[in-house]
Amino acid sequence: MGMAVGRTGTHRAGMAAALLLFLSLPPLSLPAAAQTAADTPAITDSPPTVTITGNRFTAETLTQATEGFVQDHGHPSPRLNQLTRWERPVCPEAINVPADVAAFLTTRIKTVAGQVGAPTRDGCKRDIEIIFSDAPQAVMDAVADKRSFLLGYHFVNQTKTVSKVTQAIQAWYVTAVRDGAVTVVDDPYYAPGMNPDDPLRKQFHGNGGSRLSHDMASVFDNIVVIVDTTKIEGETFGSLADYLAMLVLAQPASAVGQCNPLPSILSLFTDACPSAQRVRSLSPADRAYLEGLYSVPPDAVGSLQRATIATHMLDSLKASILAPDGGTPAAK
Q1: What is the sign, positive or negative, of the torsion defined by CA atoms of 101, 102, 105, 110?
Q2: Which of 21, 103, 108, 157 is the most buried (most CB within 10 A)?
Q3: Distance of alpha carbon 330 from alpha carbon 322, whole angstroms
Q4: Segments of the chain with pLDDT less than 50
Q5: Per-residue pLDDT tens for 177-213?
Q6: Distant-in-sequence, close-in-space partners of 323: CB < 8 Å, separation ≥ 6
Q7: Is 296 in contact with 306 (CB distance < 8 Å)?
Q8: For residue 128, what are the β-bridge partners?
Q9: DSSP sequence for 56-76
């Protein structure tokens, strides 16, 4: 049976709190090779310096690389084909880790959010659950069984596949469509107005006559992240925090598991990417993408959003990547 018709994003987000009621997580022993929060380098506002090796860009190939980066890092929303972003304050909670580690991770995520233009606020209501576990599939099996809506947009017959853990750090996104004062969670079993008694029937309409805007926007409602502690040994909490920030501030399409021409923190656990080409903090491309995402009009059509973000990235990166002769500066 499908999920209930007409539930608003606010109602669904409130239900997310029930996630912890049925998850009985044993005390976690983090890998010895991971640094404690106290040993992790302090957070700074200055972006990292990254030397790009193995790729020599021209103006044309850099343009292609930024366009590809946007495609890989921006999953289209199910209803509007837009890029989803936060409209409510970013409010993460790290679960099943020591308090100092949890505080470090969530502070870093909110710091990055503020730097790139995402909304933040102290005392906000949790909308991101970051769960550390050495049995991640058991956790997600429980989510699939008890709170399957937290898996995001999917049909019932896809639940088992969607809930499968395949990455060291993996996220599930509950997205929604905002139409003025009304927010409706993306649900394949819901169509506005299909029920004559639907209170949203006359409100959820958008603007079908514009090629530039829907008058509607795709927004995040809740994100569940699983961190497989058996696969993060050797990484610092600083790297993990930046990885998590990138993962919860934007929904990637195919960036996780790929080795892109422009470095990204999301290649951190990618075997296909040589260790020398991996970055262990947010890269300039990551930051430029997030800045573009949170500055583009939220109700613009998806193609315009992507083009605008790619242009912002190109303007942000070309000064540091392109040499006077049109190629990349020499590697240091």
Answers
A1: negative
A2: 108
A3: 10
A4: 1-18, 20-22, 27, 32-33, 35-54, 199, 203, 209, 326-332
A5: 988 778 888 888 776 656 665 545 554 555 554 555 6
A6: 329, 330
A7: no
A8: 92, 223
A9: ---HHHHHHHHHHHHHHH-PB
Other CB atoms closer than 10 Å to residue 5's CB: what's the count? 16
Summarised one tens digit per residue, pLDDT across range 37-87 is 444 443 444 444 444 444 578 889 999 999 999 999 999 999 889 999 999
As a whole number of angstroms, the distance between CA 58 and CA 48 comes to 23
pTM of the model: 0.82
Determine whether 147 is exposed, middle or buried from the number of CB atoms within 10 Å of its CB (0-12, 13-18, 19+).
Answer: middle
Burial class of 191 by CB neighbour count within 10 A (0 to 12, 13 to 18, 19+): exposed
Q: What is the pLDDT of residue 259?
A: 84
- Both tokens assigned to 298: 């939220």
Helix (H, G, I), strand (E, B) or coil at 266: helix
Q: Which residue has the tokens 């079908």?
A: 208
Give me the phi and psi of 257, to 5 degrees please. 95, 0
Contact 94, 107 (CB under 8 A): no
- Say if residues 267 and 258 touch (Cβ distance below 8 Å): yes
Beta strands at 182-185 and 169-179: parallel, antiparallel or unpaired: antiparallel
Spatial CA neighbour of 298 closest among 60, 1, 88: 88
DSSP secondary structure code for residue 300 in this structure: B
CB burial readout 270-284, b (16+ within 10 A) else e = beebeeebbbebbbb
- Which residues are 264's β-sheet partners? none
Q: What are phi and psi of 306, to 5 degrees?
A: -65, -45
**CA 270/CA 328 separation, integer angstroms:** 24
Nearest to 313 by CA among 294, 293, 285: 285
Inter-residue contact 152 to 162 (CB < 8 Å):
yes
Report d(CA 296, CA 110) in Å as an integer: 20
d(CA 6, CA 262): 41
Task: Write the CA distances from 27 to 134, 165, 239, integer angstroms.
Answer: 10, 21, 23
Residue type, 158: Q
